[in-house]
Amino acid sequence: MLIDDFANVVVVIAHEAGHAVTAWASPMISPPMAIRFFPLYGGAECEVVSLPEPNSTTDCLEFASLFLGGIAGETAVFGGFNRLAGNDLSLALAMAVWVRKLRGAPKRRARRTYFLSKIHPSISRELHGFLDQSYDLAVSRVTAHKAAHDELRNLLARGYASGKIEWKEAELAACLGPKPP
């Protein structure tokens, strides 16, 4: 996610903490390995172990919820998300398209769509439904683990304010605690 001004840092922290909590709460995804801020080019990332190729609709749903976890983190704190989450939406859409492939749907020529504040209306109802389901799963995980999300946001904010730009797996695990069942 991009950090284009200092005021946006609070949004970016909520966003990256949302990804981390969603990964941590997922039974299929490893806990987060690192969260990094890149002040020189104004970005941030939450790193998880490489995701395998999805083999089922459930895999795609889990991975899409991870991509939408940042948006869920923003929604939990601010009641909505900002336009900078377009890359996450694009990755979640890729999982929705993968579901169609798993179901043996005929190939269609993909349309290039840019996301600003909501999903573009040209996406089919089927893909919309999948993205809504993935988003609802991410929101439910962030909401169910609000205390962990808040604690992680506080950790990131205190660290960032003191000049820290990277948090490793051990720090994140100490903050989040053991992975839920």
Search tags:
181 residues; mainly alpha; globular
Structure write-up:
This protein is mainly alpha-helical. It is 55% helix and 7% strand. The chain contains six helices and three strands; from the N terminus they run H-E-E-H-H-H-H-E-H. A hairpin with a 4-residue loop joins strand 1 and strand 2. The protein is globular, with a radius of gyration of 16 Å. The two termini are 29 Å apart.
Condensed summary:
Helices cover 55% and strands 7% of the residues.
Secondary structure blueprint with pairings:
Elements: H1 9-25, E1 34-38, E2 43-47, H2 57-78, H3 86-102, H4 125-144, H5 146-161, E3 166-168, H6 169-176
Antiparallel strand pairs: 1-2, 1-3
Helix pairs in contact: 1-2, 1-4, 1-5, 2-3, 2-4, 3-4, 4-5
Residues in β-strands, percent: 5-15%
User: What multimeric state do the chains show?
Assistant: single chain
Q: How far apart lie the N and C ends?
A: 29 Å
Report the sheet with the most strands, covering strand number, pairing sense and barrel closure: 3 strands, antiparallel
Structural class estimated from helices and strands: mainly alpha
- How would you describe the shape? globular
Look at the structure and give the mean pLDDT: 82
Number of helical regions: 6
Number of strands: 3
> Helix fraction?
55-70%
Strand order of the largest sheet: 2-1-3
Low-confidence stretches: 109-119
| Cα-atom radius of gyration | 16 Å
What string, H for helix and E for strand, traces the elements in order? Answer: HEEHHHHEH
